[in-house]
Amino acid sequence: MRLADLIGQTRAVAALRKAILQDRIAHAYLFSGPEGVGKSTAALLFAQALNCERRMPDDPASGCGECRSCTLTARGNHPDVRLLTPPDDGETSVIPIEDIRRGFAYDINLRPACAPYKIYVLDPADRTAPLAIHTILKALEEPPSYVVTILVTARPALLPPTIPSRCQEMTFQLSGTEAIEHHLLTLGLEQTTAASLARLSGGRVALAIRAANRPEVLATRKALLELCADLHTRGLPAALRLAEDIKRHARALARARHEETGPEVQSDDRSEESTPATTAPADRTLRSELPWCLDVILSWYRDRLAAARSAALFSTPTIESCSTPAEGPTCAARKTSPLKPSWRPSTASSTTPT
Ligand SMILES: [Zn+2]
């Protein structure tokens, strides 16, 4: 993948490519924007482009992706590209102060081992040990000429104001649904699934790709949609159990991730009864899956609302159908609107997206 291939980030990519082509590289960048829109990928591709050993004539502003420098950067093994991240996904986990000091107080003064630039990527920069801020500020104020620092964050407001003011900011946006759908089609997904996942992603391409690459995600999405579609036929008790059902599906997703990535999640529901020390990582992972499950349901509800509105628009209410003049000519549509909540069995056909 080249910098130019980043999905839905035309403005940021154009600015970065222009900087490379004009050889006007800033000493520090702030990549900000919502989660999952490609900021981390952009930092990696920008680092590849800066240190590429074999830039191609047809696209000199991108890394080739194949030379030794590009390959080492992609693997996280380049001696001159340092990725500083928190040790785990926990929200309270921060980039250790030892890593910051080792990088910005010592390593930064050593010239690059084998590349034009020494590049530091802090991702996410808003999760940095508070005591390390002074060290970072000093490095941003008086950097050696060969150093480029990239701070990646979805929450720039959490950074001390003195940090963004020393960086060139690149803002990343939510991607268009069509662009994400097109990308999913290139990955081999069938049209209906690609369109649905693109819509569900809410413009976050990483979320769409994650869903496309994990069969259990697609299976969970299908189960959640069936759950919602059948809810009105199963009565109030089922509705009251909805939260538990959603949690069960989120737990299944968390368990699948555990099998992929390691012992972060307990293997069964008894984890909730374990000691706090052992449940904390499991609960964190479970909570990380819940928003996605809720997004699936929100997407279903949004589709259902759109279908209901379309039905109301294309119906032809008449004055005669109103019970009182004060209700006006649209009351017929309101009376029969599927938007009205009801737990009774309905004869309306399901609008479950596929
Ligand atoms: Zn290269």
The CATH architecture term of the largest domain is: 3-Layer(aba) Sandwich
**Distance, first to last CA:** 30 Å
Strand order of the largest sheet: 2-3-4-1-5
Helicity, in percent?
A: 40-55%
Keyword list:
single chain; 354 residues; alpha/beta; 5-stranded parallel sheet; 49% helix; disordered C terminus; binds zinc ion
Summarize the structure.
The protein has 354 residues and is an alpha/beta fold. It has helices at 10-21, 39-51, 68-75, 97-106, 133-141, 177-186, 191-201, 205-213, 215-240, 242-261, 276-314, 331-335; strands at 28-32, 81-84, 118-122, 147-153, 168-171. The protein has 2 domains: 3-171, P-loop containing nucleotide triphosphate hydrolases (Rossmann fold), CATH 3.40.50.300; 214-266 and 280-312, no CATH class.
Description:
The protein is of the alpha/beta class and 354 residues long. The chain has two domains: 3-171, Rossmann fold, CATH 3.40.50; 214-266 and 280-312, no CATH class. The chain is 49% helix and 7% strand. It is built from twelve helices and five strands. Strands 2-3-4-1-5 form a five-stranded parallel β-sheet, with helices on both faces. Helix 4 (97-106) links the parallel strand 2 and strand 3. The chain is globular and about 70 Å long. Mean pLDDT is 79; it is low at 262-279 and 318-354. The structure holds zinc ion (ZN). The site of zinc ion (ZN) has 8 residues, from helix 3.
